[in-house]
Amino acid sequence: MDNLNNLMQGFADVMDPLNLLLALVGVVIGTAVGVLPGIGPAMTVALLLPVTYGMEPVQAFIMFAGIFYGGMYGGSTTSILLNTPGESSSVVTAIEGNKMAKAGRAAQALATAAIGSFVAGTIGTLLLVLVTPFVVDFAVSLGAPDYFALMLLAFIAVTSVLGSSRIRGFISLLLGLTIGLVGIDSVSGQQRLTLGVPQLADGIDVVVVAVGIFAVGEALWVAAHLRRKPAEVIPVGRPWMGKKDWKRSWKPWLRGTAYGFPFGALPAGGAEIPTFLSYATEKRLTKHPEEFGKGAIEGVAGPEAANNASAAGTLVPMLAIGLPTNATAAVMLAAFQSYGIQPGPLLFEREASLVWVLIASLFIGNLLLLLLNLPLAPAWAKLLQIPRPYLYAGILFFASMGAYAVNAQPLDLFILLTLGLLGFAMRRFGLPVLPLIVGVILGPRAELQGRRSLQLSGGELSGLLGGPVSYTVYAVIALVLVWPLIGRFVVRPLRARSAA
Amino acid sequence: MSSQVEEQIVEDSRPPREGGDRAQYGVCAFLALLGTAVIVDALGIPHITSGTDPVGPRAVPLILGGLLLLLAVLYALDVARGGRGEPEAGEDVDLSAGSDWRTVVLLIAVFLANALLIERLGWVISGGLLFWGTAFALGNRHYIRNLLISATLSLTTFYAFAIGLGVNLPAGVLQGIL
Fold first, then answer.
1. Interchain CB distance below 8 Å, A220 and B85
2. How many domains does chain B have?
3. Which residues in B lie closer than 8 A to residue A428 (C-beta atoms)?
């Protein structure tokens, strides 16, 4: 009950005209930027982070909550109307959503996405309130070796579970870890990889890395391959749903939420698996199997709810353990750090009011989003037609502004360009971006926890093993690593034998 | 069973890999170079250990450098076996044609100009140039209209963020005028 009181206090703090205005502004610009083609939720948050630099942390996080959900919803609008998902998590939404739009049912597709996101987001945030305290209690009991093991799991998970090629995932991770190494070693005070440049002593700011890889990399990549004729946008009226659509949507929303939240909350989760599971489930359970592949509303409602619920789920490990499992959570973590706040079990003690304000704002942002997006959808759809030169000029403009504003030094702009070129190369060679971002953020902290573990054991490597928690985590890591080998050497021969 | 049959067909219908994607060896070389650089840098760090830090600052970079070298080799083997990464697709991306290097180089030049000029000229001028130059590089030829858009955008952001929200943006030569 204590938490409910805390949450109520959080609501009370947000219910101030100025704060509500900030939440509204957050939702509007979050959606507006998220709708723009090529900009996924993570890039939206990274690009808009500098906007909040001048604010108090509380106000900044109220706005952030709005940007977070706004960016997510904007992304699904793009995938429905353009058939071009900005992030892998909305790939599934695009499958049926765009078919619906082409069949003249764009309004219903957007409506079921918006209302489903609201339902899933609200339930997901509620679950966040209920689950997080337990995770915090658990996390408080964790020692340095356990944290080290959990971070290793996060590394392995983002490289092995997601994405198609492990080698490419690991390359991306190592690049991120190398970038994270730059700067003064926090334990010994020695400079590493700074090349004698004094400004590099503090390391490369995570915001600069995120903006460089996401925004500048994307702009350069698109510039090299710009489609001279922009993709066709399907015109849309005000979203609405008939009685039949409601009847077909509400169960997929709930099932999608049930898939999304747990996957999001796991350190190895993400939104890809639950959205695919939700799609497969709806396809099996539907009474209209003939519509699947031609625009079935269940195929939008379920995955979209799964996507949003998983986004709420990712906040559990992010807030309670300080472990980001997707790009958006990683950028959110960077936002916390830019205010000198370290997410983790102590966050709920030290910054209790801030956390509860953030959670209350998530509820409010979610509601505002629904109220705004139903009437404003046609306006958002117009944003999709923005001339591409202006779109990418705007991205570079705001990316430069944001990166400069972090430390007010032109050097960051050169770093930004270098990282942009790295992002370009990664897109060219099909290297996934997420492991790099996670590596930059978690690398230094994993090193710290590892060295702390060895300090406790006086340098004996056995110190890394810790207790039961880390044993379990290492077992999971081993399983994740060995899984494909089992597939190759056990399952396939068995199948071949049974086939013969 | 049927799914296996389908898989077979999909694999066979792929375009034949003639030599694979050779440019990937460049990535291997880059990784090897980076790994070496990380190791060399680590060896230059004084080896300080103490009771509170038995590991010291060198261990992690040395491991990381070693892993980079290892991955460079593994990646090269993967490429040699015909492995390739899928270039990223997107709504505005047309992968059927080759890369348009002229646009990319122009963009980089515009970006560098902003980085070099931002302190001297201030954000309003250099940021405006950045927007105008990028739009030009990407093929927009409405010079006057773009000039107006650039000026509006950079003035608005300066007043809203630097003066309104206290974000660090330089005024440059326009100090005192804005």
1. no
2. 2
3. 23, 87
Q: Which of A389, A408, A425 is the last residue of a domain?
A: A389
DSSP B85: P
Quick check: helix, strand or coil at residue B154? helix
| A338 close to A207: Cβ distance less than 8 angstroms | yes
Q: Which residue has the tokens 């900044």?
A: A60
Among all residues of chain B, which has the CA nearest to that of A173?
Answer: B68
Residues of A in Cβ contact (< 8 Å) with B46 = 190
Closest by Cβ to A224, choosing from B83, B103, B136:
B103
What is the C-alpha separation between A110 and A374, in angstroms, rounded?
8
Q: Are B168 and B162 contacting, i.e. CB atoms less than 8 angstroms apart?
A: yes
pLDDT means per 10 residues in chain A (500 residues)? 81 88 90 82 82 82 88 84 71 84 87 92 94 89 90 86 80 95 88 89 88 90 81 72 89 93 80 86 88 88 92 90 84 84 87 89 92 83 84 91 87 95 93 89 90 86 86 89 75 65
3-state secondary structure A281-308: HHHHHCCCHHHCCCCCCHHHHHHHHHHH
**Structure token pair of residue A75:** 């992304």
B107 to A219: CB separation less than 8 angstroms, yes or no: yes
**Do B106 and B170 lie in a common domain?**
yes
Q: Which of A145, A133, A136, A128 is nearest to A472 (CA)?
A: A145
Q: B137 vs chain A: nearest CA distance in angstroms?
A: 8
Tell me if ipTM is over 0.85. Answer: yes
Q: Which of B21, B95, B153 sits opposite A225 (nearest CB)?
A: B95
pTM: 0.85
The residue among A169, A182, A203, A212 whose CA lies nearest residue A331 is A212
The residue of chain B with its CA nearest to that of A457 is: B54
Question: Taking CB atoms and an 8 Å limit, are B54 and A413 in contact across chains?
Answer: no
Nearest to B88 among A178, A221, A417 (CB): A221
* Residue contact A390–B100, C-beta within 8 A: no
Adjacent-strand bridge partners of A183? A192
Tell me the residue range of the domain where A76 lies: 2-153+206-218+227-389
B76 and B110 inside one domain: no
